[in-house]
């Protein structure tokens, strides 16, 4: 079972979107496309902290934790390794934290001419896959992660974000 601790502020709250519901379905879609789909139905509880923040807050996190002095759209901070995630029994466990930056997300959605909600859900899926041990450090990893993201988004009725638009 995945439990989500959602924290949002400012512009995210004023957008009027049902972020808790959208986060639940998005993160579970990512789990379904992972190598650990049992997480969604396991008796063990896994928690994810999802923070919907302003750009300045994500900028600070990016600078302090990644050494990159700029805002970014999504950050993920995994707390467990693959062996811990694949453990079906045990006490509740924190998979990790995901942070999304409102301004960056909104600008990217605008540039791509897609709804903010769809782009934010894509970033939630992306962040969750990072918590589950996926990465995009090389071409093979990137292709695998993109395929999982695309399938998870299809479950949510969201178009492939990597497909070239005519």
TrEMBL record:
GO terms for cellular component: cytoplasm. Pfam families: YbeY. Keywords: Cytoplasm, Endonuclease, Hydrolase, Metal-binding, Nuclease, Ribosome biogenesis, rRNA processing, Zinc. Its EC number is 3.1.-.-. Binds 1 zinc ion. One of its GO terms (biological process) is rRNA processing. Its cofactor is Zn(2+). It comes from the Bacteria. One of its GO terms (molecular function) is metalloendopeptidase activity. InterPro entries: MetalPrtase_cat_dom_sf_prd, YbeY, YbeY_CS. Zn(2+) binds at residues 126, 130, 136. It is found in: Cytoplasm. Belongs to the endoribonuclease YbeY family. PANTHER family: ENDORIBONUCLEASE YBEY, CHLOROPLASTIC. Single strand-specific metallo-endoribonuclease involved in late-stage 70S ribosome quality control and in maturation of the 3' terminus of the 16S rRNA. This is Endoribonuclease YbeY.
């Amino acid at each position: 079972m995945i439990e989500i601790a959602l924290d949002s502020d400012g512009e995210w709250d004023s957008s009027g979107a049902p972020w808790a519901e959208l986060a639940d379905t998005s993160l579970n879609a990512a789990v379904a496309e992972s190598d650990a789909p049992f997480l969604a139905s396991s008796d063990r509880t896994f928690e994810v902290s999802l923070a919907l923040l302003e750009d300045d807050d994500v900028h600070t996190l990016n600078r302090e934790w990644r050494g990159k002095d700029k805002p970014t759209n999504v950050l993920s901070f995994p707390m467990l390794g693959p062996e811990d995630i694949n453990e079906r029994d045990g006490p509740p466990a924190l998979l990790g934290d995901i942070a999304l930056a409102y301004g960056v997300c909104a600008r990217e959605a605008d540039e791509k001419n897609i709804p903010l909600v769809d782009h934010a859900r894509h970033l939630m899926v992306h962040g969750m896959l990072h918590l589950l041990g996926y990465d995009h450090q090389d071409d093979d990893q990137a292709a695998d992660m993109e395929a999982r993201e695309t399938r998870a988004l299809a479950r949510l009725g969201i178009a492939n974000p990597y497909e070239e638009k005519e």
